[in-house]
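Page 42, continued from yesterday. The earlier attempt failed because a stray header line got pasted into the input along with the sequence. Redoing it now with the clean sequence only.
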Amino acid sequence: MYSGMIGKVDKAKKYSNETERINIINLKADFQGEHDIYQVSFVSGDWNCQCLFFSTRGVCSHTMALQHILEKVMNK
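This time it went through. Structure tokens are written below.
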């Protein structure tokens, strides 16, 4: 590995412990539910899911699960 890459790897390790540097603006994921695959997105602070439950309630198990996963990742 050349020296420039070593510096980038070290900086990446440092950044990964400083999660306050990160502000997720947009995120899109395919979520394998029990009955189908749903596209879940986070755009400008708003969650969305293609499942029927989300369309009637504005929240669902898929969005809540992703929120929980992201919180765990960000708080490591």
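Notes: The CA atoms of residues 30 and 39 lie 5 Å apart.
Reminder to self: strip header lines before submitting.
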